[in-house]
Design a protein that fits this description.
Blueprint (H helix, E strand, L loop, with lengths): L1 H20 L30 E3 H21 L10 E5 H7 L12 E8 L5 E9 L10 E2 L2 E2 L9 E6 L19 H4 L9
Antiparallel strand pairs: 1-7, 2-3, 3-4, 4-5, 4-7, 6-7
Length: about 190
């Protein structure tokens, strides 16, 4: 159940982010200094500035989430909490969920999505491209840290911020929009009564 919820959150967030990353900036072209969201003279469409997070900020939030998991595990002696902190997602999955042909050209075949937690305990998802991944062979690949060309308005090093969490932006009639029930709250717990 927990993995289904995490996958649901991940797919919903990726849907918004993929629309922003479907064409890649060419760092060799000079970008105009006007709004990032506008279609640039280079022909590349950029997301609004709030979709980009400075690498150092994202690293801090990802570390916060890792500490949260560590503390959660320490407080649950009777069960092990899944320590998943990121997902490797294939281009095929992203294109399919957007209704695009899997043959659609792209610069990367995989992205990694990291869980983050702000200092105010707000959840975050961060996404970055991945190279040299081969999940079938157990090869995780390497994250590509994106860089903003000078004068672009982008941080020098950044990741994309999937910033529309549910709740606030939930599909009210989706079968995936689930709340905790007694049965799912007890899932994975060992019955010590015999």
């Amino acid at each position: 159940m927990k993995k289904t919820i995490l996958k649901s959150i991940l797919i919903a967030g990726l849907f918004g982010a993929w629309a922003c990353t479907n064409s890649k900036p060419n760092p060799e072209k000079e970008m105009p200094k006007d709004s990032i969201a506008a279609v640039k003279a280079t022909g590349v469409q950029y997301c609004d500035a709030d979709h980009y997070t400075d690498l150092d900020v994202a690293m801090h939030h990802i570390e916060n989430y890792a500490c949260y998991l560590k503390n959660l595990n320490a407080s649950h002696c009777d069960m092990s909490i899944d320590s998943t902190k990121a997902f490797l997602v294939s281009k095929c999955d992203l294109l399919s969920v957007l209704g695009l042909p899997v043959e659609t050209p792209s610069q990367y075949d995989y992205v990694r999505v990291y869980f983050g937690l702000t200092d105010n305990n707000s959840p975050k998802l961060y996404i970055t491209p991945v190279v040299n991944a081969d999940p079938s062979a157990g090869v995780a690949g390497e994250d590509v840290i994106l860089t903003g060309p000078p004068g672009s308005g982008l941080p020098a090093k950044y990741v994309l911020d999937l910033n529309f969490p549910c709740p606030n932006l939930c599909s009210s009639n989706s079968p995936l929009n689930r709340n905790c029930t007694t049965a799912s709250a007890n899932a994975g717990k060992t019955d010590t009564k015999k």
